[in-house]
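User: Sequence recovery, please. Input:
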């Protein structure tokens, strides 16, 4: 954003606003979903995870492919596998 001509105050203000809105959304989600069944919560988390994967695929994978052409897919799968293993070790 700074390269686009935005001031330091604008950049920090924008990210501070994003952090505040994210915190409020988290509180609202916790309040709303506290009475829902585990199945509804799991389905919602699955949709959110799909949205994150979609965002990663749309923005980050093309850039990674430019740098690590032949290994981008293997690196991506290794990252998801590591995340899966860590999630199973933690719980």
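Assistant: Recovered sequence (91 residues):
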């Amino acid at each position: 954003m700074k390269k686009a001509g935005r001031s330091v105050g604008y950049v920090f203000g924008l990210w501070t606003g994003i952090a505040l809105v994210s915190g409020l959304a988290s509180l609202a989600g916790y309040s709303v979903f506290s009475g829902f069944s585990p199945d509804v919560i799991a389905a919602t988390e699955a949709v959110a995870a799909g949205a994150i994967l979609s965002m990663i695929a749309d923005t980050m994978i093309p850039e990674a492919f430019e740098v690590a052409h032949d290994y981008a897919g293997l690196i991506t799968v290794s990252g998801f596998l590591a995340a899966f293993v860590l999630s199973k070790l933690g719980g």
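The chain has a mean pLDDT of 86.
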